[in-house]
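Lecture notes, unit on protein representations.

Consider one protein chain, 726 amino acids long.
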Amino acid sequence: MSLPPAPLSLAPVPVAPRTSALHRTGAFCARHAGWVIAAWLLVLLAAFAGRHAVGATFGDQVTLPGSQATSGADLLARSDPAAGAAGGKVVLHVDSGKVSDHAAALEETLGRLRALPHVTAVAAPVTSSDGATAYTAVSFDRKLKSLGHAYTERLDQATTPARDAGIGVGYGGDLHEIVRAPADDAVAEATGVGAALIVLLLAFGSVAAALMPLLTALVSVGVGLGVVGIVAGTLTFATSAPTLATMIGLGVGIDYALFLITRFRQYLIDGDDPRTAVGRTTDVSGKAVLVAAVTVAVALLSLYACGLTMIGRLGLAATIAVVVTAAAALTLVPAAMGLVGRRVDVLRVRRRPVAESAGDHDGWHRYARLVARHPWRFFTAGFVLVALCAIPLFSMRLGHIDDGADPAGSTTRDAYDWIADAGGPGFGPGVNGPFTLVVDLAHATVSADRVAGRLTGGLTGTHGVARVTPPRTSPDGRVLVTTVVPATGPQSADTGALFATLTDTAVPHALEGTGTRGYLTGSTAGQLEFRDTVTERLPLIIAIVLVCAFLLLTVVFRSLVIPLKAVALNLLTTGASYGVLVAVFQWGWGDGLLGLGEAVPIESYVPMMMFAIVFGLSMDYEIFLLSRIAEEWHATGDNERSVGTGLSLTGRVITCAALIMTAVFLSFTGSQAVVVKMLALGLAVSVVLDATVVRLVLVPSLMFLMGRANWWLPRWLDRRLPRWTV
């Protein structure tokens, strides 16, 4: 007898929950930790081998196609190639008597200089009115940078007779490209890493947990520098590019790893097994790392929009470092966590390990409730504090930092001061940065002699001009060349004003009706045009960064209000950082502290670089904080609870991250390059302001003031935006 068919079961078949790509990536790296770590070490070796093989080149040559300085230099090079030859000044000085009192030593020194490799000419010495200072112009057959710092020893050997006779020797003009030692920031890097280790030990309470962020960051920074070097085989980066890449890469590399490892340890404390904890960590915190890295990269790459190759490539170098460290955070760090597992808390320096704090009655929640009761007071206090820091911004003066800012006692600083302080034709502050005026005679309607007379008469009486050399005609008769010596030094505001007067009125008026056109060229003219170009294009960079950040945050947080607040607060932070820079460098508050000899203007491209970097890094902390607030908001719908929980969960880790990044940046203020000092101090100030005033005061007070409106997004826009939240 056949049995009836069994009834069809309608019970659902259990389906394993689908995991994200980041979760699967983290889990894979944890399972194959040894292979992943070995792969990164091989990449590190390959990157450095590639850097060595391609012969990376770095230089600070800036060209502005179509500018006065470039057009004038090209015109002069075609008509008189010798006039554009690379060269500098060897400056001689005695404290008492005259340089000519040591005629034999002087003559032997000049002879040795003429015998140096690549030297094509050594001019007769120009002597000051009191005879205590003299200099000779030395010309070379190749760019000075290509001779390398080792050539300094040859210069020192050639000038030994003068030194033996008691004559001081300094190297001026473009010879600083040879005699300045290449930047060696090993001490700064070691100091930053050491400070980071101390903070990590105090934060995590265990040696293993403290070492993981450092070791993974060092590997990723090494790979990033290797890649920058390989790219430098094709593109010429500025000399500060490796330092900038190291500084940014080390800071974000440690911080990204710190955020991940903190979340990993919390999952372990909550009872997850190590591999599950790694996967969940990479999924949740990995998204925040990705958004943060993309924000920084977009901000840095936007520098290309300014049209200035050198600045764009500085942004590219830093972007490479950020991209590599983000990749390491999503692969190498999970592998390290998977390898260490529960042993993350071995070798403790604290009895009980801690990670995130999630108690509803901890200090962060109590602080959040205090801010919720007095949001306007907190907001006003925070805003006033940051606004006060920003006040010096309104007197910021951009310029180029010349040899006058070099350390006292250096050969470049001695040469600068001796020429500036001496009297007589060929001496004075402006001799350290003269303008070369090139007049195109191709369409002249009057004789060259008449043009020369017009120039001499028209320019000599111009306010701010110390001297105009007699104009001379080039060998081919196509251009007229003269030198205009300002009464002030190259980084003086008066020299910048003179440049504007000469280009806008004095030179055009002097040449009016002659059918000729004049071009001011030379290093000082090029630097001032570069400054003006940067100033003109800075608003474009700001606009691009703001728009990109707003769009990205709108997609991530599904809100129009949160991105607006984040953008506004980061603008305020950047302005305050600028203000501190002006006070320290331009007003001279940091002359002794930072090893500067005098107050200096803000290097022309520093504000543009700082805006991109500060904005990107400041967004990092807000993304990590807001992501935890948003996570709680979507779970509870309670705004006050969400803010308190977000502060509680991120309080320890963001504070530690800020301390680490501040220590790393401040360690680079000891660099020999003033531009690096400026960037390092500005970035450190921005991190401190963002991690304290912005995160603890302005963000929570605004979140409470806005209430549920924080999460407002029109439905039609919500339907059209891609879905990617953190």
